[in-house]
Amino acid sequence: MRWQDGLQGYADLHPWTDLGDLPLAEELARIHDERWTPLSHSSLQLARRDAEARWAQRNLLPSPPGMKNNALVTSPAVLTSDFLHALKIQHFDTLKIKLGRDLKSEMAQLKVLEHTSWKLRFDFNGMLDESSYADFMAALSPAVREQIEYVEDPCAYDPAVWKRLHKWAPLALDQHLNLALTHGKPACDVLILKPAKNAVAETMQFAQTHGCGVTVTSYMDHAVGVVHALSIAEDLKKEYGDLILQSGCLTHRRFHKDEFTRQLSWEGPCVLPVPGVGVGFDTLLEGLPWQPLTGR
Ligand code: MG
To answer: How far is the CA of 96 from the centre of ligand 1 (A)?
Structure first.
């Protein structure tokens, strides 16, 4: 993105159509017409943030990094004591585990976590209904239940239902956050803030008003987006302290490596600044075959 004041900055835009985002071609056409969506509006803000940091010759990530990330576990089937030991020696202390595809076997796979020091974040992506979630939590070993920091999107967000489910574990709201922001008091303890999609200032104001914790996560997007999300997390941590929980931005390892992710380096749960200014990647970004946006 290039502005009339001469500043130039970078952000990515990664729609997930199965999560309800518009297809990329539609997003691009709308950017051309300056009809902003939550995704493109965020990209614009983040690109400007990058542009200002580039102008000031400043990297957007602090050194040394202050923000830890949870380890992402896409299926509890991988949870073995060897797997957990490898994460522990890298100083991870929190696991975010995706659940909800096969509750019965997942319940058995979680047993390995009993009486360990892992802090647990479960994410059901809204796939359950009230009774299947309640049954799952009732049957879960109490030792594992005690280690839960929060459960993300057990079922579709419905304040009345979530209030009833709250007794099992603290709840975190991800998928319908933008919807909840426009209503009153939320029925959750934690907000999942994705700078790629949610307005940062509004979300923080909402969190403060209602006493919710905030976890900043990437959007499972390009390395540029990962660094943007982390940089927001670092800044919010400085400003809001304990309100900001450990982040969930170490997502690029779920994908094949590319020339960008190869430039990301981390020490255990912390990501180091990428060489360059702004989000880094200076030479790679300059070398991309940029094209002006055209209308439909
Ligand atoms: Mg989620």
So the answer is: 10
